[in-house]
Structure formats: C-alpha cells, structure tokens
Amino acid sequence: MSSPDLSRLLAGIAEVIPEDGLQRKLALGRPLRVKLGLDPTAADVTLGWAVVLRKLRRFQDAGHTAVLIVGDFTARVGDPSGKSDARPRLAKEAVEGYADRLLGQFRKILSEENLEVRYNSEWLEGMDMEAILKLTASYTVARMLERDDFAKRYTEGRPISIMEFLYPLLQGMDSVATESDVELGGTDQKFNLLVGRELQRDYGQDPQIALTMPLLEGTDGVQKMSQSLGNYVGIADPPDDMFGKLMRIPDGLIAKYLLLCTDLDPEEVGRIRAGLADGSQHPNEQKRHLGREIVDLYHGAGTGERAEERFNVIHREQEIPDDVPQVHIPDGTVRDGRVWLPRLLAETGLASSNAEARRLISQGGVRLDGEPVGDPEAELPVAELRGKVIQVGRRRFARLA
Predict the structure, then answer these.
(1) Which residue from 64, 112, 232, 284 puts its CA 20 to 30 A from 2's CA?
(2) Which candidate, 202, 185, 53, places its Cα nearest to that of 115?
(3) CB atoms within 10 A of CB 319
(4) Which residues are CB-neighbours of 149 under 8 A, at least 6 positions away?
C-alpha cells in the first residue's frame, strides 16, 4: 500500500496499538479483516457512531473486508465503558428492534462490497459453562481493575457486577470468532480492544491491531454525543434538522467535525483550522460549510445548500442573528440535572434578577430557539438547553453550552 493510501487510513486516528502494527498487517499482502462491533442500544446512528463507521468504509475502499458485528447479545449485557454506574439491561425484543432499524442506517455509510455482517449471539448465546469458565480464566480481577472506570467505581465504593467484568471478555470473543486482524473503536473502547488481543493470543491467533478513533462531543460541546443526552445529530435526521443542529455546535469543534464527519481532505481541514485560529476564517462561515458538507453526505448533493437557505429564512423571520455569542450554563444553576430558567437568565446577565427574569417570561419576552417560553417558573433539563439559542427581548441572544 502506498504512503498516501496509508496516510488516509490513519487520518484522524487517536492511537494504533502496537504503533507499527498496521504496517505489519498490511505487509501480509492479503485483504485484512477489519472488525467493528456496535451494540444496538438506541434507534439512530449518530455522527459519533459514524466516525468509526466511516473509518471502516475507508478500509473497504482500500480493498479490505469490513466485519460489522451487531452486538445483539452484548447489548443485553450492557457495555460499562465510561459508566459511573451499572448500565440497565435491555430486553432481547428491544435489542432486536433497534438492530433492525440500525442496519439500514449502517448501509448509508458502508459499501455492500467487502461487507460481512455478523450477530454475536451466533457464538455467545450457545456458550456452555465449560467455555465460560475457560474464558473467565483468561483475565484476573486485578487486571480488570486496571481499567479506569472500574478502578474509579471500586475506589468510590460503587458496585461492580461480575456481569460487567464479563463484557470485555465477551467483546474479545467476537475478535476470536471472526479472526479479526484490526479492530476499530472509540478511545473509550481501548481496554476492550486490548482484551481482544489477549484472548486471540490465548486461542492461538495472531493478535489484532487496536485502532481507536477520537470521541465526538455532542452539540452541547461538553459531553460525548449521545441519544440519551439529546445532544446528537442523527445521520437519518431530515436535512433541515441536521443543518440546524450543526449550527449549534461550539466554534471550537468546527475543525474536529470537519475532520471526523466529512470527506474533506485532512490538509484542507488543517488550513481551515489554522484560519479559524488566526482569524482569517470566520467561524460562522465554516460552520455553514460544515453543515452543507454533512447534509450533502447523507441526503445527496445540493440538499445542504437548500437546508441552509431554509435556515436563513427561519432566522430572518425570528430575527435570530447568525453569529450568536456562546454562554456556558453556570454549574450553580443546575440542580438534579435541571435548570430553573429565571435563575439562568439572571446568572448569565440576560436579566438583572430572578424577579425580572420571571416578569420577562410572563410578558412573552423570552424565547428558546424562537419558541416563546410561557411558564415563569420553567425548569428544563440541562441536556435539552445545551446548544439552544435563548433570546431575551429583541436584541439579546446567547447560545447555551
């Protein structure tokens, strides 16, 4: 493989383990089996999921086999990665429903050529006790506690179930069952990917290369993109919704989204990043560029421009300026995950006091994304507020982050 082709495969990568492993695998001179496992635990493919799916497509385009694991069994166990508490288990019927919906969306990104779709219930559901005991003997509790989220919960006295310890081992068995050469995942999956390498070694296979991608922050600019947090952009979102959500992202994420979510050349993204840093590129202009690129990618050429035109009309009608200053929601305004709107207005300087804020809301002078707020005692989930434009009167605007 030529150096430019290798560079394209590595573009945007967070880490390759071992560092020279991909070159060594490519030197085998055969199509590699490149595995990506996704648990169907929600109804939509987000741009966050699309980051790793698009990297898998890059390997397909280079002639390698994409092994897409639909984690219909592991989804019922629950991936504890990055979780501070045990994750609720999903019923088999719910998982199957999500899987059916997601497969069509996966195919918006992946090619039908060089694609192998597998369900990990094929090899995990039928494991007997002897096979499970052999699997659990491969890893010690001490090694499991080297994992950051497990270590943190153990130190804080939070419970960790034996089932959660099983999850990395079950994901590792996916690598054994499919004889993967390379496994893709987000940086939060690094531990699980390394467990796969160890299990392949134990089962007499050449260990896979672990290749991690950066996690994509959601439209709030704070937390990882997640459907449960409401800060996501879905690849099946209608064009207008997709463009509008992308216009909410903080300016500091524009270059990252351009690199991980579009087909722009990494060198061009580098030039845009530099321009945003030195002021020669305007953030609003590049955010619109980003919106057009992503909408075109998932809805066809020209749809991004048409979505932008409709966005302009809506903003003109509601008198929302394109370039709205970003304001972080003060920690002191958040209680049990909710924000009392009058206090938010007062603490961000959009009103002089809680009393004035209530008066402004009662008089219809406060809007969220153009919609009037009618309740002067409104309490809203902080996840829903992030990324929205709050308007007080005719001239005061802020995008909440």
Answers:
(1) 112
(2) 53
(3) 12
(4) 80, 81, 82, 83, 84
Angle, nearest 10°, between helix axes 190-202 and 162-178?
60
**What would the 3-class secondary structure string for 253-291 be?**
HHHHHHHHHCCCCHHHHHHHHHHHHHCCCCHHHHHHHHH
104 vs 119: CA distance, rounded Å: 15
The owner of tokens 């672990």 is 210
CA torsion, ordered 290, 295, 296, 298, to nearest 10 deg: 130
At 276, list the tokens: 């945003």
List all residues 6 or more positions away from 14 whose beta carbon is below 8 Å from its beta carbon.
187, 212, 213, 214
C-alpha torsion sign, points 391, 392, 395, 398:
negative
Nearest to 41 by CA among 111, 104, 88, 83: 88
> Domains in the chain, start-ordered, CATH in brackets?
3-213 (3.40.50.620), 239-318 (1.10.240.10), 326-400 (3.10.290.10)
In what side-by-side order are the strands of the sheet with 396-400?
326-327, 396-400, 389-392, 366-368, 371-372
The mean pLDDT value for 84-107 works out to 79
Indicate the average pLDDT of the chain: 88
Q: Tell me: the pLDDT tens digits for 229-285? A: 888 999 999 998 899 899 989 999 999 999 999 999 989 999 999 999 999 999 999
Strand order in the sheet with 15-17: 15-17, 209-213, 182-186, 33-38, 65-70, 115-119
Half-sphere exposure of 9 (CA within 13 A, CB side): 22
Report the alpha-carbon distance of residue 24 to residue 193 in Å, rounded: 18
β-strand partners of 67: 35, 116
